[in-house]
Hints:
By secondary structure, the chain is an alpha/beta fold. It is built from 13 helices and nine strands.
Amino acid sequence: MQKIMTVKEWLFALGIYPSLEAIEKFSLFFEMIESSARVKYPKEDLPPSLFKSGKIKKLSQKKKASFTSFLEKLDVAKEMAKYEKQGIKWVTILSEDYPFTLKQIFSPPIVLFYKGNFELIKKHTWLGVVGARACTEYGLEATEHILQPLIKKSEKEIGVVSGLAKGIDTKAHQVTLDASGSTIGVIGTGLDRYYPFENRTLQRKMIEKQLVVSEYPIGAKPLKFHFPERNRIIAGLSRGILVVEAKKRSGSLITAYNALDEGRDVFAVPGSIFEQTTDGCHRLIQLGGILTKESEDILKEWMYI
Protein backbone atom coordinates (compact mmCIF):
# COMPACT_ATOMS: atom_id res chain seq x y z
CA MET A 1 0.00 0.00 0.00
CA GLN A 2 1.40 3.38 -1.02
CA LYS A 3 2.03 5.81 1.81
CA ILE A 4 -0.12 8.96 1.73
CA MET A 5 1.81 12.23 2.04
CA THR A 6 1.02 15.88 1.62
CA VAL A 7 2.79 17.66 -1.23
CA LYS A 8 4.94 19.51 1.32
CA GLU A 9 5.98 16.24 2.97
CA TRP A 10 6.77 14.69 -0.41
CA LEU A 11 8.95 17.66 -1.36
CA PHE A 12 10.74 17.50 2.00
CA ALA A 13 11.38 13.79 1.46
CA LEU A 14 12.78 14.51 -2.00
CA GLY A 15 14.96 17.25 -0.52
CA ILE A 16 16.55 14.95 2.06
CA TYR A 17 16.91 11.94 -0.27
CA PRO A 18 20.69 11.44 -0.55
CA SER A 19 20.94 9.33 -3.71
CA LEU A 20 20.03 11.85 -6.40
CA GLU A 21 21.84 14.88 -7.74
CA ALA A 22 20.06 18.25 -7.91
CA ILE A 23 19.03 17.97 -11.57
CA GLU A 24 17.64 14.47 -10.94
CA LYS A 25 15.52 15.75 -8.05
CA PHE A 26 14.19 18.49 -10.29
CA SER A 27 13.29 15.86 -12.89
CA LEU A 28 11.22 13.95 -10.31
CA PHE A 29 9.56 17.20 -9.24
CA PHE A 30 8.68 17.88 -12.89
CA GLU A 31 7.03 14.47 -13.19
CA MET A 32 5.09 15.05 -9.97
CA ILE A 33 3.74 18.34 -11.32
CA GLU A 34 2.83 16.74 -14.65
CA SER A 35 0.99 13.80 -13.11
CA SER A 36 -0.55 15.44 -10.04
CA ALA A 37 -4.32 15.16 -10.23
CA ARG A 38 -4.83 16.46 -6.69
CA VAL A 39 -3.37 19.92 -7.06
CA LYS A 40 -3.29 22.41 -9.91
CA TYR A 41 -0.55 24.96 -9.45
CA PRO A 42 -0.79 28.53 -10.75
CA LYS A 43 1.83 29.04 -13.45
CA GLU A 44 3.41 31.94 -11.55
CA ASP A 45 4.10 29.63 -8.59
CA LEU A 46 6.16 27.25 -10.71
CA PRO A 47 9.78 27.54 -11.86
CA PRO A 48 9.95 28.82 -15.48
CA SER A 49 12.24 25.94 -16.46
CA LEU A 50 9.31 23.52 -16.04
CA PHE A 51 7.94 24.99 -19.24
CA LYS A 52 11.15 24.06 -21.06
CA SER A 53 10.46 20.40 -20.43
CA GLY A 54 12.47 19.29 -23.45
CA LYS A 55 15.62 20.17 -21.52
CA ILE A 56 14.66 18.07 -18.50
CA LYS A 57 16.02 14.54 -18.75
CA LYS A 58 13.65 11.95 -17.32
CA LEU A 59 14.84 9.75 -14.50
CA SER A 60 15.40 6.01 -15.00
CA GLN A 61 12.82 3.58 -13.64
CA LYS A 62 15.49 2.12 -11.35
CA LYS A 63 16.13 5.49 -9.68
CA LYS A 64 12.41 6.19 -9.38
CA ALA A 65 11.86 2.79 -7.76
CA SER A 66 14.70 3.49 -5.33
CA PHE A 67 13.09 6.78 -4.28
CA THR A 68 9.69 5.09 -3.90
CA SER A 69 11.30 2.50 -1.62
CA PHE A 70 12.87 5.33 0.40
CA LEU A 71 9.44 6.97 0.81
CA GLU A 72 7.88 3.74 2.04
CA LYS A 73 10.45 3.40 4.81
CA LEU A 74 10.56 7.09 5.76
CA ASP A 75 8.94 8.35 8.96
CA VAL A 76 8.56 11.89 7.65
CA ALA A 77 7.28 13.39 10.92
CA LYS A 78 10.22 11.94 12.84
CA GLU A 79 12.64 13.23 10.20
CA MET A 80 11.15 16.73 10.27
CA ALA A 81 11.48 16.72 14.07
CA LYS A 82 15.25 16.17 13.72
CA TYR A 83 15.56 19.39 11.75
CA GLU A 84 13.41 21.31 14.20
CA LYS A 85 15.54 20.05 17.10
CA GLN A 86 18.70 21.35 15.41
CA GLY A 87 17.12 24.73 14.63
CA ILE A 88 17.14 24.08 10.89
CA LYS A 89 14.19 25.54 9.00
CA TRP A 90 13.29 24.99 5.36
CA VAL A 91 11.19 26.19 2.45
CA THR A 92 10.07 24.18 -0.56
CA ILE A 93 10.07 25.29 -4.16
CA LEU A 94 6.28 25.76 -3.94
CA SER A 95 6.42 27.94 -0.82
CA GLU A 96 5.49 31.63 -1.01
CA ASP A 97 8.73 32.40 0.84
CA TYR A 98 10.96 30.66 -1.69
CA PRO A 99 13.33 33.27 -3.19
CA PHE A 100 11.92 34.56 -6.48
CA THR A 101 15.28 34.97 -8.24
CA LEU A 102 16.34 31.46 -7.26
CA LYS A 103 13.17 29.99 -8.71
CA GLN A 104 14.10 31.49 -12.10
CA ILE A 105 17.22 29.36 -12.64
CA PHE A 106 17.14 26.20 -14.74
CA SER A 107 17.27 23.66 -11.90
CA PRO A 108 16.35 25.36 -8.62
CA PRO A 109 16.72 23.37 -5.39
CA ILE A 110 13.54 21.55 -4.37
CA VAL A 111 14.11 22.39 -0.70
CA LEU A 112 16.26 25.15 0.76
CA PHE A 113 17.37 24.49 4.34
CA TYR A 114 18.50 27.45 6.40
CA LYS A 115 19.68 28.81 9.71
CA GLY A 116 19.47 32.49 10.56
CA ASN A 117 17.36 35.39 9.34
CA PHE A 118 15.57 34.28 6.16
CA GLU A 119 13.85 37.66 5.84
CA LEU A 120 17.20 39.11 4.77
CA ILE A 121 16.69 37.69 1.28
CA LYS A 122 13.75 40.01 0.61
CA LYS A 123 15.41 43.11 2.05
CA HIS A 124 18.46 43.51 -0.16
CA THR A 125 19.90 43.45 -3.64
CA TRP A 126 22.43 40.62 -3.60
CA LEU A 127 25.89 40.52 -5.12
CA GLY A 128 27.50 37.10 -5.33
CA VAL A 129 31.23 37.21 -4.62
CA VAL A 130 33.43 34.29 -5.63
CA GLY A 131 37.12 33.69 -6.16
CA ALA A 132 40.08 31.45 -5.56
CA ARG A 133 40.48 29.48 -2.35
CA ALA A 134 44.26 29.73 -2.77
CA CYS A 135 44.03 33.45 -3.40
CA THR A 136 46.81 36.02 -3.41
CA GLU A 137 47.26 39.04 -1.16
CA TYR A 138 46.17 41.13 -4.14
CA GLY A 139 42.87 39.23 -4.28
CA LEU A 140 42.19 39.81 -0.59
CA GLU A 141 43.01 43.51 -0.89
CA ALA A 142 40.86 43.87 -4.02
CA THR A 143 37.89 42.23 -2.26
CA GLU A 144 38.06 44.71 0.60
CA HIS A 145 38.79 47.66 -1.71
CA ILE A 146 35.59 47.00 -3.68
CA LEU A 147 33.16 45.66 -1.08
CA GLN A 148 33.71 48.02 1.83
CA PRO A 149 32.71 51.21 -0.04
CA LEU A 150 30.06 49.30 -2.02
CA ILE A 151 28.17 48.47 1.16
CA LYS A 152 28.60 51.98 2.54
CA LYS A 153 27.65 53.86 -0.64
CA SER A 154 24.59 51.70 -1.27
CA GLU A 155 23.55 52.48 2.32
CA LYS A 156 23.80 48.75 3.08
CA GLU A 157 21.13 47.97 0.48
CA ILE A 158 23.53 45.72 -1.40
CA GLY A 159 24.31 42.50 0.45
CA VAL A 160 26.93 39.85 -0.29
CA VAL A 161 26.34 36.17 -1.09
CA SER A 162 29.28 33.78 -1.03
CA GLY A 163 30.19 30.18 -0.31
CA LEU A 164 31.89 30.24 3.12
CA ALA A 165 34.95 28.62 1.53
CA LYS A 166 38.59 29.53 2.15
CA GLY A 167 40.15 32.55 0.49
CA ILE A 168 38.00 35.10 -1.32
CA ASP A 169 34.70 33.74 0.07
CA THR A 170 35.87 34.12 3.66
CA LYS A 171 37.21 37.61 2.99
CA ALA A 172 33.94 38.68 1.34
CA HIS A 173 31.87 37.57 4.35
CA GLN A 174 34.28 39.15 6.85
CA VAL A 175 34.48 42.50 5.05
CA THR A 176 30.68 42.62 4.88
CA LEU A 177 30.29 41.85 8.58
CA ASP A 178 32.95 44.43 9.50
CA ALA A 179 31.01 47.02 7.48
CA SER A 180 27.79 46.07 9.32
CA GLY A 181 26.33 44.84 6.03
CA SER A 182 24.23 41.77 5.27
CA THR A 183 25.62 38.49 4.00
CA ILE A 184 24.41 35.01 3.04
CA GLY A 185 26.56 31.88 3.11
CA VAL A 186 25.66 29.06 0.72
CA ILE A 187 27.34 25.82 1.78
CA GLY A 188 27.90 22.47 0.07
CA THR A 189 27.21 20.30 3.14
CA GLY A 190 24.41 19.77 5.61
CA LEU A 191 23.82 22.65 8.02
CA ASP A 192 25.07 20.49 10.89
CA ARG A 193 28.60 20.56 9.44
CA TYR A 194 31.36 23.12 9.03
CA TYR A 195 33.43 23.05 5.87
CA PRO A 196 36.14 24.12 5.98
CA PHE A 197 36.25 23.43 9.72
CA GLU A 198 38.37 26.52 10.40
CA ASN A 199 35.38 28.65 9.31
CA ARG A 200 33.13 27.27 12.06
CA THR A 201 33.33 30.51 14.09
CA LEU A 202 32.43 32.59 11.03
CA GLN A 203 29.55 30.26 10.14
CA ARG A 204 28.18 30.40 13.70
CA LYS A 205 28.46 34.19 13.69
CA MET A 206 26.54 34.40 10.42
CA ILE A 207 23.80 32.11 11.74
CA GLU A 208 23.23 34.49 14.67
CA LYS A 209 22.22 37.58 12.66
CA GLN A 210 22.80 36.77 9.01
CA LEU A 211 21.83 33.68 6.99
CA VAL A 212 23.37 30.34 6.00
CA VAL A 213 21.57 28.12 3.48
CA SER A 214 22.06 24.70 1.90
CA GLU A 215 20.10 22.30 -0.29
CA TYR A 216 21.74 19.33 1.43
CA PRO A 217 20.24 17.35 4.32
CA ILE A 218 21.63 16.85 7.80
CA GLY A 219 24.81 14.79 7.70
CA ALA A 220 25.66 15.53 4.06
CA LYS A 221 29.43 15.55 3.53
CA PRO A 222 31.36 17.92 1.24
CA LEU A 223 31.21 15.75 -1.88
CA LYS A 224 32.93 17.01 -5.01
CA PHE A 225 29.76 17.44 -7.10
CA HIS A 226 28.09 19.46 -4.33
CA PHE A 227 30.15 22.54 -5.09
CA PRO A 228 29.13 23.09 -8.72
CA GLU A 229 25.54 22.58 -7.50
CA ARG A 230 26.15 25.07 -4.67
CA ASN A 231 27.50 27.59 -7.20
CA ARG A 232 24.21 27.75 -9.09
CA ILE A 233 22.45 28.76 -5.85
CA ILE A 234 24.91 31.61 -5.30
CA ALA A 235 24.22 32.77 -8.86
CA GLY A 236 20.48 32.24 -8.44
CA LEU A 237 20.20 34.38 -5.30
CA SER A 238 22.24 37.19 -6.83
CA ARG A 239 21.51 40.04 -9.21
CA GLY A 240 25.13 39.82 -10.30
CA ILE A 241 28.39 37.98 -9.60
CA LEU A 242 31.76 39.55 -8.78
CA VAL A 243 34.71 37.30 -9.61
CA VAL A 244 37.87 38.42 -7.84
CA GLU A 245 40.40 35.73 -8.75
CA ALA A 246 39.86 32.60 -10.84
CA LYS A 247 41.96 30.22 -12.87
CA LYS A 248 40.89 29.12 -16.35
CA ARG A 249 39.09 26.08 -14.95
CA SER A 250 37.61 26.83 -11.56
CA GLY A 251 34.43 26.74 -9.53
CA SER A 252 34.32 30.53 -9.62
CA LEU A 253 34.01 30.45 -13.40
CA ILE A 254 31.21 27.88 -13.13
CA THR A 255 29.35 30.36 -10.91
CA ALA A 256 29.99 33.17 -13.39
CA TYR A 257 28.81 31.08 -16.34
CA ASN A 258 25.70 30.10 -14.38
CA ALA A 259 25.04 33.80 -13.83
CA LEU A 260 25.51 34.57 -17.54
CA ASP A 261 23.14 31.74 -18.47
CA GLU A 262 20.50 33.21 -16.17
CA GLY A 263 20.92 36.75 -17.51
CA ARG A 264 22.64 38.10 -14.40
CA ASP A 265 25.46 40.64 -14.43
CA VAL A 266 29.04 39.42 -14.24
CA PHE A 267 31.75 41.68 -12.82
CA ALA A 268 35.40 40.67 -13.04
CA VAL A 269 38.45 42.12 -11.29
CA PRO A 270 41.48 42.39 -13.61
CA GLY A 271 44.95 41.38 -12.48
CA SER A 272 48.44 40.60 -13.63
CA ILE A 273 48.80 38.90 -17.01
CA PHE A 274 51.54 36.78 -15.41
CA GLU A 275 49.31 35.25 -12.71
CA GLN A 276 47.23 32.12 -13.37
CA THR A 277 44.76 33.23 -10.70
CA THR A 278 43.57 36.05 -12.96
CA ASP A 279 43.27 34.08 -16.23
CA GLY A 280 39.60 33.34 -15.55
CA CYS A 281 38.75 36.97 -14.80
CA HIS A 282 40.43 38.13 -18.00
CA ARG A 283 38.48 35.52 -19.96
CA LEU A 284 35.21 36.78 -18.48
CA ILE A 285 36.10 40.34 -19.49
CA GLN A 286 36.79 39.12 -23.03
CA LEU A 287 33.34 37.50 -23.04
CA GLY A 288 31.64 40.75 -22.01
CA GLY A 289 31.98 40.71 -18.23
CA ILE A 290 32.22 44.16 -16.65
CA LEU A 291 35.78 45.14 -15.77
CA THR A 292 35.63 46.09 -12.09
CA LYS A 293 38.33 48.08 -10.32
CA GLU A 294 36.21 49.84 -7.70
CA SER A 295 32.76 49.92 -6.15
CA GLU A 296 31.55 52.58 -8.58
CA ASP A 297 31.81 50.10 -11.45
CA ILE A 298 29.02 48.08 -9.82
CA LEU A 299 27.05 51.01 -8.42
CA LYS A 300 26.85 52.72 -11.82
CA GLU A 301 25.68 49.53 -13.50
CA TRP A 302 22.94 49.13 -10.90
CA MET A 303 22.10 52.85 -10.94
CA TYR A 304 22.92 53.53 -7.32
CA ILE A 305 24.96 56.58 -8.39
